Amino acid sequence: MKITSAATAALLLLASSASAFFTPSSSSIVTQLASSTISSPPERIAPDAGWVPEWEGRTGLSPEEFVKSDMSKPDLSGMWECPLTRWNSEGIDVKAAQKEAAKMPHCPLEVRATPADNAMGAEYFAKNRDKLRADLLKYGAIWFRGFTLMQSVAGNRLMHEALGLDPCLDPLHSSGLRKFASERDALYEEVNKPSLRGHYIGLHNESTAKRTAAYAAFVCFQRATEGGGRFLVADGAAILAELNPVTLEKLYNRKIRISVSNLDIPPALPSFVKDGIKGLVDVAVAPKFDMDLEMIYESDGKPGRLQAVETAESPINRHPVTGLPVWFNNAHNHARKLRDRRPCGVPEVGMTEVFYADTMEPLDLEDCQEIKRASEKHITALSMEPGDVLLVDNYRALHGRDVFQGDRFHAVTWFTWDQNEEWRGNERRIVEKNAFNQAINQMMDWLPKDFESNQS
Which residues form the TauD/TfdA-like domain (predicted)? Predict the structure, then answer.
């Protein structure tokens, strides 16, 4: 993932410009932001994990070697659009769903390469394709460990082609925040920016209420040079089974909504000016994101705050293929009460929040703490090293990333429904990134390298 909600920075860029048109000066917004800072912030503690495999110290290729693409391969830049989210969340018996989910095996399945496996190269994945695809559905994720093939961009592509996976765009590709590591190989950069290394990315499915990738392959080309940077994965079925039934029933019945950005407008401005800002942001910014967003003032109780909020969604969904009920939402990543209590490198304007959909009140601390407890009990904090790939069923397993030091290079390819044309749809990428998209990527590179001074 990433900065958690990729819409955040882009909304900030245009929305800040929009509000500047209506306000006396940029300093007034700075003053407003400063006045809204929490005077006594909660203690920030690094989250736990249930399983923490040891590092093995394996080495990989140099950056000059691992970034090379096989130019004899066709260009994949015209890949499929990310498919629409498959929702099947009505009429779920929560207690029965928990019993069913509890039967699932531990996620992820670890598949360690032998010398013979490595000697086969891509043929290993072609020969074992059917079993590996079946195991992906059974376990939710597969950690391919110690494979030399995937130590380069070219080899990583050979792997997913041998498995018959069909690449697609990131669900938020249109935001411009999804930067390619190798566009012609359908490979996006993961969150490697030095400016975000002190930011903990909580558990999430790569999903919005509107679009969700079917699968993903996260690859490590270079582990963090000065430590940290574990990749996090947890089974949505295990989290569902673990949650307190009362809390789970409450969240399922009330549903949730997620805000993806904040814009603090001086609350003393006249209503017609606020409405003008809201309308301008809605018209100028929302179309840049393939999300259903509603611009709402003061949802979290902060005077003058304008938030972009997704539509209501269920925190439980049935898996599109297996029908298994799973915990399918991004509350562990987006809930403000959790982000305020762990390492976080996002400025106030980029802080997300999770609301009960029926009242638009933020989740209370007790519910947030239960989501934290159940989620982190089932996190495996992977010690991914060069050539390691985590293949993820994006409807079943949630992922995230711990903080890191130094330089790091991970990447990801998203995949559509290769075995179901109706679910995949018929949309292919037809528009290149425009100047707006490129400006957003550049803005992310300008962010400070140390966020400690920005923590609220």
Answer: 126-409
Total-model pTM = 0.85
> For the chain, which domains are there?
7-36+80-430 (3.60.130.10)
Facing residues of 391 across strands? Answer: 142, 217
Task: Report how far residue 308's alpha carbon sits from residue 259's, in angstroms, rounded to the nearest whole number.
Answer: 5
Query: How much is the mean pLDDT over the chain?
Result: 85
**Phi/psi at 440 (nearest 5 deg)?**
-65, -45
324 close to 104: Cβ distance less than 8 angstroms: yes
Phi, psi dihedral angles at 249 (to 5 degrees): -60, -40
pLDDT tens per residue across span 397-421: 999 999 999 999 999 999 999 999 9
Q: How far is CA 314 from CA 88, 329, 341, 379, in A?
A: 9, 8, 25, 22
- How many other CB atoms are found less than 10 A from the CB of residue 135? 18
The secondary structure of residue 271, as a DSSP letter, is: H
pLDDT at 261 over 70: yes
Using pLDDT thresholds of 50, 70 and 90, give the confidence band for residue 138.
very high
204 in Cβ contact with 397 (< 8 Å):
no
Instruction: Assess contact for 208 and 293: CB atoms under 8 A.
Output: no
Find out whether 91 and 421 touch, Cβ atoms under 8 Å: no
